[in-house]
Structure formats: structure tokens, C-alpha cells
């Protein structure tokens, strides 16, 4: 749809340029004749008739020449907003600020508004187009002031101009309940509004909930302010919503391919909208609080630190420019709220039903990221970066670098799992070692965000096997990255090792027999180190460790390096967790075995709890002895990790999500995953449902208080000193 709108803009520009060219043809001879004794027109008349025509031609020719190749080489992530920004800034230059010609040129910019409507809020073009639209709207508003009353939404007392800087749908926490709001940040105030339900085809309308003048807004409440109590939705419920969403997306695609009636598709889309709306309300959990001059607080819940930092930055930056307090009468507030319908730049709640048909479903697989260097700060600081990717419309942190100094950071590589992801975000923090220091704004930790940036994950660009180098600029810091994507059908292959004396890619029974142990040495060592210093690490097992550290540990274990325990003691605990996950992922056969996998997947779906327990326990005890003992050893550890959930944020469900596919995913020959390398696997495919089943199997065993072992031999295995 974006390409279709841009094609229309190109056609309009072509027509406009041809008209300007037609005006330029007689202009030159008329100008030449004006200096003769018998002029056709005087110089003043020529300047009036052909006012600014050459300048407008040059501006629009530059715009057309810049836009044409981008449309011809179109991709979903193509950016054009910078061209609209440049066009509008040139047309509205100060000396031309009251020119009717410039006004006419900008009034032809309504396609910019159409393009914005069809640009997803997460697209890198969205803020650029928002800015371009604001430039033209504010300019036209200032011209209209001379002839007609200015739009009330853009006017405050004494003729001052009010502009919309940013707007977004957000979740507000009201008396413990989550409410969907549309928040508008103007140059002088923050307005929170509720979108009314549309009845009988009426136009969109808003109700004002509250507003705070920017001169009176603070992020830090009074000393006696109670911490924000966030109602948490169990991870199992969120996962169930995602399963339903994936299933409904698949159904809709099937119905479309089958050319079924629109009623069936409409019914499915309605169900999808309900589930996505519920997920939109229940998923965000990162607080952002604002207070008015009386200390009254309002709390929002966001999905990521990146989004929270964006809102804080733009509000604080505008507060520096804002000197007058805007106090609105009830009538003025109503008029401003009504104007939000026309001013809004985010036109739809971020649901699939509001997305374009040709929008990319995102990437599923693994993204390798190398952080090469960071530069730009004048002084050397202890910095680290975190990486976020999106899934189901929400961002979560996936990787964290080691501490480095901006003067000489060593390259660090990470492997990040993608689940329908479209954007990679990078946040750079300064490490604070004063643990008693706590930022009172939203209960954040003491570490300070120094910069942030993002890049689109374009399927067309990343489908190749080569590394793609890029630079992310962020508040004066430049971070150089390389990224490489491996689609799921290639990344999930279990490949037997070619090193018979190693441990990675070798059958677990072979390793335990060689070591004369019940549990592989690598599993025991990793769990021991994590138990020693990683139980309170936020996101342990979820956050990726540095890939180079993981590979170093892999080599050490494969070559039976006697210094491996010393290496582990000096490495980041996330690298040790990553080594353990890699070991299980590279087993030539999953821990739960290929033969029993279909039975586990079937048993977890039984509705009768007694029958399910009997089935699942019998299957578990049918595992080969090394597999069973290793699993029970790991299971006890994961339960101890979950006991510290309030600190490490890793619930039983989170751990099951991380380890379920790793322990259960069958070998390639038994996998149900499609293997067409030309088609990226979307979250709507069978893969997501299969993964959810694997998560549920592991979660079932994690939630069992005890696992009965009727065989005395098996009981002795668990407490064997040989483990």
C-alpha cells in the first residue's frame, strides 16, 4: 500500500513538474524582452506572474529525482520520510513564510498524510513522516491566520502556536486496572485521552481524561509516594493468547487461499482483534510515571526501556523550551481534545487487523550480531549495551554486552532468537557501582541510559549468508555492528559432531559412558557456576551471552581443557548459561528423544488430569537412563532459579520458554517445520504452535512438586555420588 501511495505521488509530481516547465518556457524570452525598448511585460509584472516558479521547479525536481529510484528499488523497510522533510523545509523557508505559492505547494502534500496512515508505527519512516506533516500543517496554519481564524487545536491565547510533537497508544494504570489511552504530547502540555467507541458509522472521537502543563510536569513524585503496584498477568495466560493469535492468523491465511466468503474471514479477524487487544493491554509491564504540581501521579505501562527513554527525552527536551504554563478552560480543553482526531499521527491501535496486507510478517530464526566498537564520548566510561527485538508487537531484552570503555571496546558477538521480529534496538548504559543509589523515577536501577538507536530487520537484505555492516548513531555515540541472519529451517538442524572425542554434537550416552558419570561434566560444571553466582542475574538463560565467550568454552570442553573451570570463573555468567543451552541444542538427538517426542506432544493435550499425569510420568521414566538423570538434575536447578523470580525475573514459564524447544525439538528428519529456504517462516506457521507445545511439556514437569520414581534403582541414581 505504501508503494501504491508513493506511485501516485510520483505521478502527481510528474504532472506538476510538466506544468512548471510549461511556465518556464516563455519566462526567459519575456525577461529578455523586458530590458528592450518595447517590452511585452515589465520586470515587476514578470516577477508577479512567474513568482518563485524557477525555485519551486528546482525543489520539486530534486524531490522527484530522489523519490523515483527509491520506489523503483522498493522494499518494505525503504525510507522516504527524509525526502518529504527536506521538501517541506525548503518550501517553507522564512522569507517565503507568507507566500501563497509556497502554501499551494504544501497543500499538495496531503499524500504525505495518506502515506503516514499506511506506515506502521514501528517503521523507521514513521517519525520522519510525522515531522514532515507537522512542518506543513504548522506552516499552513500560520498562513491561514492572515485570512481565516486559525484552527483552535493549534492556537492558544495571544496567538501563540501549539504543535503536536508525538502521540501514541499507551496502557494507563488506573486504580489497579489497565486502560488503553491515546497520549498526545504538545509543545506546552501532555494530554491523555480515551478513544470513544464508534457507533453507527460516526467519526472517531476522543474523551479527555487529564492533562498536565509541561512547566508543571515532573517524573519524580513526593517522598511519600507509594511504589506503583503493577498487576501481573501470568506468563501462561500471555502465552495462551499468543497461541490463539498464531492459530487465528494461520486460519485467516488458509481461508484467503481457499477463497472462502468474506463473512468467515471477518469473523476470524474479529476474534484476532479481540485477542490482540487483550495482549496489548496485558503485556506491557515497565512503568512510566508523571506527576502534576500537586504531586498527583499518573502511571503508564510500556513494553521496553527504549520506549520509556524516548518519551522521557522528548518531554524533557521540550520542557527546556517551554516557559509559560498552559491552563485550559473546560471549553478550551474540549476543543483541543476534539482537534486530536485531525492532529493524530498514529491513526490505528497497533493490531494485525490495522496492518497492510503486504507488510512483512517479520523474521523467525537466529540473528548473529557483532558489536565492533563504540565511539563518540569525550571521556572513558564503563559502558554496556543491551539489545531488544520485537515479537507479537512487543519488545524484550535479548542480549547484554560485557562492560567496555569507549576507547577500546573488544568485538563481542551474540546470537539472538527472532520470533516474527522486524526491528533490532540497541541501548547503551553507563554502569553505576553505587548499589545504594536508586533512581526514583519509576523505580529504575542506577545505570544511566547514554544513548539508543535501532535498525530495521529487512528480510530482503538479511536473507543472504553474508554479514551486513551498519552503524547506529545514538546521542553522539556511534556503535558499529555486523549482523547475519540464519532462517529457522537452517538454524534448527541437529548436526552430529565430526569430533568423536568432543562433547558437543555427541550422543549423551556416549559422553556419560566415556566420562563414567551419570550427568555430563559440562552440565555439572555450568550448573555449579550458575548456582554460585548467577541465580540473581536478571534474565539468566533468557539474555544471550557473548558468542565469542561461548565458543571459547565450547572449544575448551571439546578439547578437555583442564583450565575450563578457571575460564568459567572469569566469564560473564550469561556466557556460561549460553554454553549450556548450546550443548543441549547441538545434541544429535533431543534429550527427550525423537522416538518419544510425538508421545510427549500428544500427552500434554490430554484434558483428564489423572490420565495426563500417568501418561507424562510413564513417558518420562521411559527415557534412556543418562537422558533421565540429566533432565532431573537440570529440572531441580531450574526450580531453584525460579525460586528467585522476584530478583532474576525468570519464572517457571520463562524458563520453560527458553529450554522447551532446546530439550524437545526433534531432529531434522522428524521436524514438522517447512524447509523451503526461499520463504521466511512467519509466526503464523505451524512452527509457533509446535514450539508452544514443547514449552508446555517442560512447564508441566517444572510445576510438578515431585516426580515419583517407583523403581528403587532410579531412586538411587538421583542421589548417586557419581553424578
UniProtKB/TrEMBL annotation:
Annotated ranges, domain DH? 1-86
| Alphabetical list of CDD domains matching this protein | RhoGAP_Bcr
Q: Name one GO cellular component term.
A: membrane
Gene Ontology biological process terms in this record? signal transduction
Q: Where is the Rho-GAP domain?
A: 506-700
Q: Which PROSITE patterns match?
A: DH_2, RHOGAP
Tell me the GO molecular function terms: GTPase activator activity; guanyl-nucleotide exchange factor activity
Has keyword Chloroplast? no
In terms of InterPro entries, this protein maps to: Abr/Bcr, C2_domain_sf, DBL_dom_sf, DH_dom, PH-like_dom_sf, Rho_GTPase_activation_prot, RhoGAP_dom
Q: Which UniProt keywords apply?
A: GTPase activation
Q: What is the protein name stated in its UniProt record?
A: Breakpoint cluster region protein-like
Starting at the broadest rank, the lineage of the source organism is: Eukaryota, Metazoa, Chordata, Craniata, Vertebrata
UniProt gene name: bcr
Amino acid at each position: 500500500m505504501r508503494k501504491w501511495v508513493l506511485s501516485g505521488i510520483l505521478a502527481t509530481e510528474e504532472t506538476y513538474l510538466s506544468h512548471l516547465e510549461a511556465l518556464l518556457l516563455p519566462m526567459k524570452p519575456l525577461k529578455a524582452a523586458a530590458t528592450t525598448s518595447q517590452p511585452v511585460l515589465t520586470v515587476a509584472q514578470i516577477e508577479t506572474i512567474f513568482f518563485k516558479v524557477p525555485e519551486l521547479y528546482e525543489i520539486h525536481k530534486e524531490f522527484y529525482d530522489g523519490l523515483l529510484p527509491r520506489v523503483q528499488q522498493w522494499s518494505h523497510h525503504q525510507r522516504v520520510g527524509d525526502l518529504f522533510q527536506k521538501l517541506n523545509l525548503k518550501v517553507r523557508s522564512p522569507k517565503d513564510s507568507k507566500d501563497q505559492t509556497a502554501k499551494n505547494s504544501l497543500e499538495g502534500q496531503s499524500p504525505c498524510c495518506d502515506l503516514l496512515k499506511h506506515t506502521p508505527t514501528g517503521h523507521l519512516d514513521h517519525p520522519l513522516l510525522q515531522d514532515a506533516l507537522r512542518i506543513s500543517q504548522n506552516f499552513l496554519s500560520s498562513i491561514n491566520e492572515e485570512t481565516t481564524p486559525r484552527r483552535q487545536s493549534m492556537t492558544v491565547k495571544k496567538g501563540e502556536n501549539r504543535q503536536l510533537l508525538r502521540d501514541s497508544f499507551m496502557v494507563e494504570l488506573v486504580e489497579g486496572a489497565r486502560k488503553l489511552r491515546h497520549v498526545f504530547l504538545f509543545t506546552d502540555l501532555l494530554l491523555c485521552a480515551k478513544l470513544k467507541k464508534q457507533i453507527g458509522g460516526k467519526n472517531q472521537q476522543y474523551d479527555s481524561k487529564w492533562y498536565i502543563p509541561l512547566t508543571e510536569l515532573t517524573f519524580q513524585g513526593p517522598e511519600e509516594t507509594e511504589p506503583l503496584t503493577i498487576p501481573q498477568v501470568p506468563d501462561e495466560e500471555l502465552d495462551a493468547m499468543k497461541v490463539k493469535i498464531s492459530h487465528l492468523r494461520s486460519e485467516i491465511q488458509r481461508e484467503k487461499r481457499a477463497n472462502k466468503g468474506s463473512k468467515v474471514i471477518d469473523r476470524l479477524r474479529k476474534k484476532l482483534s479481540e485477542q490482540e487487544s487483550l495482549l496489548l493491554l496485558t503485556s506491557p509491564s515497565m512503568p512510566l510515571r508523571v506527576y502534576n504540581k500537586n504531586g498527583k501521579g499518573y502511571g503508564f505501562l510500556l513494553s521496553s526501556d527504549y520506549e520509556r527513554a524516548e518519551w522521557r527525552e522528548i518531554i524533557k527536551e521540550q520542557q527546556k523550551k517551554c516557559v509559560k504554563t498552559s491552563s485550559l478552560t473546560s471549553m478550551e480543553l474540549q476543543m483541543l481534545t476534539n482537534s486530536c482526531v485531525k492532529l493524530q499521527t498514529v491513526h490505528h491501535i497497533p493490531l494485525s487487523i490495522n496492518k497492510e496486507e503486504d507488510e512483512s510478517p517479520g523474521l523467525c530464526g537466529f540473528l548473529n550480531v557483532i558489536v565492533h566498537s563504540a565511539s563518540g564520548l569525550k571521556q572513558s566510561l564503563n559502558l554496556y549495551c543491551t539489545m531488544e527485538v520485537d515479537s507479537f508487537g512487543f519488545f524484550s531484552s535479548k542480549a547484554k554486552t560485557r562492560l567496555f570503555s569507549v576507547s577500546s571496546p573488544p568485538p563481542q558477538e551474540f546470537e539472538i532468537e527472532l520470533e516474527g521480529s522486524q526491528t533490532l534496538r540497541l541501548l547503551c548504559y553507563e554502569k553505576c557501582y553505587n548499589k545504594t543509589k536508586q533512581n526514583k523515577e519509576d523505580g529504575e536501577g542506577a545505570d544511566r541510559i547514554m544513548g539508543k538507536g535501532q535498525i530495521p530487520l529487512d528480510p530482503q537484505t538479511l536473507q543472504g549468508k553474508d554479514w551486513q555492516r551498519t552503524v547506529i548513531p545514538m546521542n553522539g555515540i556511534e556503535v558499529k555492528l555486523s549482523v547475519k541472519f540464519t532462517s529457522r529451517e537452517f538454524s534448527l538442524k541437529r548436526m552430529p559432531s565430526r569430533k568423536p572425542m568432543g562433547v558437543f554434537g555427541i550422543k549423551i550416552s556416549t559422553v556419560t559412558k566415556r566420562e563414567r558419570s551419570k550427568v555430563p561434566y559440562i552440565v555439572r560444571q555450568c550448573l555449579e557456576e550458575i548456582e554460585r553466582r548467577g541465580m540473581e542475574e536478571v534474565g539468566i538463560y533468557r539474555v544471550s551471552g557473548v558468542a565469542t565467550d561461548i565458543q571459547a568454552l565450547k572449544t575448551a570442553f571439546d578439547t578437555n581443557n583442564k583450565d575450563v573451570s578457571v575460564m568459567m570463573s572469569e566469564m560473564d555468567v550469561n556466557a556460561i548459561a549460553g554454553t549450556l543451552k548450546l550443548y543441549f541444542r547441538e545434541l544429535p538427538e533431543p534429550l527427550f528423544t525423537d522416538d518419544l517426542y510425538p508421545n510427549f506432544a500428544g500427552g500434554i493435550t490430554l484434558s483428564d488430569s489423572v490420565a495426563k499425569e500417568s501418561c507424562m510420568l510413564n513417558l518420562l521414566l521411559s527415557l534412556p537412563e543418562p537422558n533421565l538423570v540429566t533432565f532431573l538434575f537440570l529440572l531441580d536447578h531450574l526450580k531453584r532459579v525460579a525460586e528467585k523470580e522476584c530478583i532474576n525475573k525468570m519464572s517457571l514459564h520463562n524458563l520453560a520458554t527458553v529450554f522447551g524447544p532446546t530439550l524437545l525439538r526433534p531432529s531434522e528428519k522428524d521436524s514438522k517445520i517447512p524447509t523451503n529456504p526461499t520463504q521466511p517462516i512467519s509466526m503464523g506457521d505451524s512452527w509457533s504452535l509446535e514450539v508452544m507445545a514443547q514449552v508446555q511439556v517442560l512447564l508441566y514437569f517444572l510445576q510438578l512438586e515431585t516426580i515419583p520414581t517407583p523403581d528403587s534403582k532410579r531412586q538411587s541414581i538421583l542421589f548417586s555420588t557419581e553424578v
